[in-house]
Predict the structure.
Amino acid sequence: MYAIVEIAGQQFKVSKDLKVYVNRLSSEEGSKISFDKVLLLDDNGTITLGAPAVEGASVEAKVLQHLKGDKVIVFKKKRRKGFKKRNGHRQYLTQIVIEGISATGTKKKAAAKKADVAEATTEE
């Protein structure tokens, strides 16, 4: 079972016991958090699509640690002008582990949507 969930403005494909690095969250280390913006659920081949999110579905996670990512070098240069500028930064990250995916909610099947699209194309 996996889900596509939006965490801190980015989308991640997550499954149980997966460790993920996300943008810094305001939760304390060791605390449990829940993400309600689940965009897609796959339960052994049964796909549930959200419009835009699946109602009633959530992903539970635990914050492992807060850390800084690798240094990213930003180098700007203009040729033949002698202009060089070197800059960089380290992104603030949070490491979380996915503890579970709950799929309680209404189900919209992708197969039903495909059937509707197939009917619409045959009518034209």
Notes: The chain has one domain: 2-123. Residues 2-123 form one domain.
